[in-house]
Sequence to fold (313 residues):
Amino acid sequence: MDKQDLLSDVFATLRLTSDIYFRADLSGAYAVAIPPENRLIRFHYVRRGACLVGIEGTGDWVQVSEGDMAIVPNGATHVLADAPDRQAVPLGDVIAGGALDAAGVLTAGEGEGRVQLLCGFCRFDEEINHPAVSHLPGLIVLRARDIGHEPWILAALRLLSLETDLDGQGMNGVLSRLLEILFIQTVRRLTPETTENTSGYMAALADPHLSKALLEIHRAPEHAWTIAELARVSGMSRARFASRFAEMVGVPPINYLTAWRLMKARLMLRETDLGIDEIALRCGYASLASFTRRYAAAFGIGPGAYRRAEKFR
Fold:
């Protein structure tokens, strides 16, 4: 398992899925407020024209143009508008007014100027609070003009546009998979080389010292890791390692270890037939009672009850 595989491991455990809301055809004067919704990651891909995206409470507006994609994490309220001074109409009111047709196209606004958008979302197991998704910026913009040196992202965006224009059977299935790909590609590029941030989960994976500790935690979550052991693996002093890990990853190393163990346990409870005592051992808990208490404290439900609930989904 290398650095890239760690991120794959995280997203497999998060159970990432995606879907399309609608295609939007907006013209003239318009402002549509997208309401908050849990921790969804919302996408707005600009197929034609340009529009503004504003995040509630920031007062900031960002223009996205043809070929660009705006990504709004954490289910945040945001507005799509042609100008920053418009009175925004809630999306629910727009839809209630008959703006969404049977083909899944949302039409709003009147007059000159036109923008066509593809709007979708990614969701994940929201009971899991992994720093790869919990510490994302409030707004991420992929600009076609800026990613020419990253052909893998540019190719995914172009395929998104081509598939939407094709409008054939299976379109939503293809588009939803592309959104997942684009989201993982976007998280992968949030490194000090592509952003102004010198901290964050991807920065930690790129760090030659911290990445070694993260790799060992993912390889052997059942091991009784101590800060001293992880510091030795990283080639750092105990104090320096603990401080740098917390600063970059966002949580202390033992907290990360505990959270990762419980994430893996949640995955095994859902996707395997292993006994709960065996899952507890594989996730570093010698005592079933201790595992049960930890699991219930983290997720508000015991491991047995969670497994039974998942079987009826």
In short: The chain has two domains: 15-188, 207-311. The mean pLDDT is 91. The CA atoms of residues 28 and 110 lie 5 Å apart.
